[in-house]
Amino acid sequence: MAEEVLAFRNVTLGYDRHPAVHHLSGVVARGELIAVCGPNGAGKSTLLKGVMGLLSPLSGSIARPDDGRRIAYLPQAAEVDRSFPINVYDIVALGLWRRTGLLGGVSRADRERIAAAISAVGLDGFERRTIGTLSGGQMQRALFARLLMQDAEIILLDEPFTALDAATVRDLIALVERWHGEGRTVLAVLHDLELVRAHFPRTLLLARSPVEWGETRAVLTPSNLIKARHMCEAWDESAHACEAERAA
Ligand SMILES: Nc1ncnc2c1ncn2[C@@H]1O[C@H](COP(=O)(O)OP(=O)(O)OP(=O)(O)O)[C@@H](O)[C@H]1O
């Protein structure tokens, strides 16, 4: 059995005592490629933030590697500040900062890796362009190049292909498959179920609570998708954590 890299133990995550993800249990083994699916507001982004440690569980726990450098996170495009005056080369180089520190030197080998990452995402010639001048697809390519630099064991992607053209999706999916081939663990929040069926062997279907987690074709069934929609529609936005959690 492959090594466990993440374990959710009856975890509830939320904001201001209002749960957004409820009672999730399960383990992720090293090298798994997992899609996280569910309706709007199902708690998918919240789950990734919990895995990243940006949110502490209201109850239960998430076991993850102690060394934060082993996890990389790509937030939703809307959360990335494109007005920041930084160029493509430097934003890709930022993938190194956890290793070098913000003021650490960049070696010749690092510079070669940065150039290779920019090339791998098809952005040769864009090195000096500030990120505010990039198209949405070019920006996402730059952020994938930064992920390449991070060299993380666990990679979390929040809606990485939303609003991208087919060619960009194809190129970025190829990188995800490359990471999978290298034995890295990838969790991606996705809305395109055809894309999930074609490329993601495992799926967690979330609707505030887990609906099902397992092999993609067994999870993304019409009945599970209807159940997920109903569970989200029935959710009481103002509910507090359960009694048992409050007592904990
Ligand atoms: N910072 C926040 N403060 C308070 N509530 C939040 C915050 N972020 C998310 N929520 C709430 O948590 C719930 C789950 O949101 P989340 O963004 O995790 O869902 P999602 O499945 O990623 O949705 P989408 O597919 O629309 O991106 C929603 O009710 C949302 O309003």
Automatic annotation (TrEMBL):
Zinc recorded as keyword: yes
Annotated SMART domains: AAA (SM00382)
GO annotation, biological process: zinc ion transport
GO molecular function, one term: ATP hydrolysis activity
SUPFAM superfamilies: P-loop containing nucleoside triphosphate hydrolases
ABC transporter domain residues: 6-233
Keyword Protease: no
UniProt entry keywords in alphabetical sequence: ATP-binding, Ion transport, Nucleotide-binding, Transport, Zinc, Zinc transport
Pfam families xref list: ABC_tran
Similarity section: Belongs to the ABC transporter superfamily.
Protein name as it appears in the record: ABC transporter ATP-binding protein
Taxonomic source organism: Ancylobacter defluvii
Lineage of the species this protein comes from: Bacteria, Pseudomonadati, Pseudomonadota, Alphaproteobacteria, Hyphomicrobiales
